[in-house]
Amino acid sequence: xxxxxxxxxxxxxxxxxxxxxxxxxxxxxxxxxxxxxxxxxxxxxxxxxxxxxxxxxxxxxxxxxxxxxxxxxxxxxxxxxxxxxxxxxxxxxxxxxxxxxxxxxxxxxxxxxxxxxxxxxxxxxxxxxxxxxxxxxxxxxxxxxxxxxxxxxxxxxxxxxxxxxxxxxxxxxxxxxxxxxxxxxxxxxxxxxxxxxxxxxxxxxxxxxxxxxxxxxxxxxxxxxxxxxxxxxxxxxxxxxxxxxxxxxxxxxxxxxxxxxxxxxxxxxxxxxxxxxxxxxxxxxxxxxxxxxxxxxxxxxxxxxxxxxxxxxxxxxxxxxxxxxxxxxxxxxxxxxxxxxxxxxxxxxxxxxxxxxxxxxxxxxxxxxxxxxxxxxxxxxxxxxxxxxxxxxxxxxxxxxxxxxxxxxxxxxxxxxxxxxxxxxxxxxxxxxxxxxxxxxxxxxxxxxxxxxxxxxxxxxxxxxxxxxxxxxxxxxxxxxxxxxxxxxxxxxxxxxxxxxxxxxxxx
Length: 508
Fold this sequence. Notes:
Elements: H1 13-22, E1 26-29, H2 38-47, E2 54-57, E3 72-75, H3 81-87, H4 96-106, E4 114-115, E5 124-127, E6 149-151, E7 155-159, E8 166-169, E9 173-177, E10 180-183, H5 190-200, E11 205-212, H6 216-222, H7 232-240, E12 245-248, E13 255-257, E14 262-269, E15 276-278, E16 281-282, E17 288-289, E18 293-295, E19 297-305, E20 310-312, H8 325-344, E21 350-354, E22 363-368, H9 375-384, E23 395-399, H10 408-418, E24 426-434, H11 448-451, E25 454-463, H12 488-495
Parallel strand pairs: 1-2, 3-20, 4-12, 22-23, 23-25
Antiparallel strand pairs: 2-3, 5-19, 6-9, 7-8, 7-11, 9-10, 10-19, 11-14, 12-13, 14-19, 15-18, 16-17, 21-22, 24-25
Helix pairs in contact: 4-8, 6-7
């Protein structure tokens, strides 16, 4: 049965918060919480593995006075598949498998944005020497962090100088001054392509705008590798079923959502002399990563915000027992993107694609209907040759159509009994590009300042039944023996007596 989607244009983050409140998906924290370590610790412990609610902190130490510029912080918005389904206009109990299928079409079904004259984000405008980023309750999220990270789940908007196409990405940004934000980014990312294009024109800096707090589709799309030449605003329009209304920034030539909570405008400087020390940070790997080093820095020229703005932030890093927002969104988006990559490459027989949230698509499982020898190798080569593989798909496991890739036990069983390393079922692709935050990579090879990206040795686990084996008459002409699972006839006969034997459904 097809999954029915009814796109929802929430309008702004406040309407999204109201929808979560009505659905019982929001916890509002009225007790005073310290921005220094405590808020991040609470967020880490509360988010859990999908059972935790979104969090709205309304009483932040040092920012709870009547004249405070910003008194609230919103986190954990998308740290469950239920809330991702709500954002997409689906039933909250939609299976992740269906979320992936829906997102495959969302990435190609775009709606162009619309320019408007003004909006609530212009209710307050702060420029020049009046800019003070410390008036916003940026948390020191983790004790090991190098400082206060204002930019965690904000949309970083840049524009290509020649095509005019904007990009909305998600990159970490640490406060290094009242008007300075230092950021970690990679040359292989879209923002890196924009930097290269601006430098080719002789520019010394690049206009940037950070969008903090809007509809959840911004957070969802900002961390996804949207195809080159496609603006994330268009994809957001497809998700919400209506154009994103954009306004012009005050000091840079960038467009931002008119109903955003906060927009920070400025210029990313290219001269290494302007770099500020940034890092480390508790990263998406679940490890503290990105050693303290000089990083490109944004010179902030303006802040615009709504009355009583709500800061949007998130705790990064997925590990057993605590899955981040990025873990949930990545598991859906990166799986959908990988599936589309395989389709575009002409790989046949792909039935399902899934990257479990705890490792955020670093490991990817692919289910195929195998029709020819080495089809699994084609899967891995197609994925590794795509730009989407820059920070994902280090390990690819391919299984047959009888294995449910959403069931860890099923995948583990296939690896146990269908993998023979001596029969080329384990393939290593050495020394490819990869994320610079993976601690399993030697420290020198994680130096993005020297190399522009990290270095990965990728691996395919071909857990399909090996078609290089000869058909065996002892197995009925098949290459592998039958499993011990009862035949359909035997199952039917047994189930016919189920009630008679007093067995419960859970026993099946």
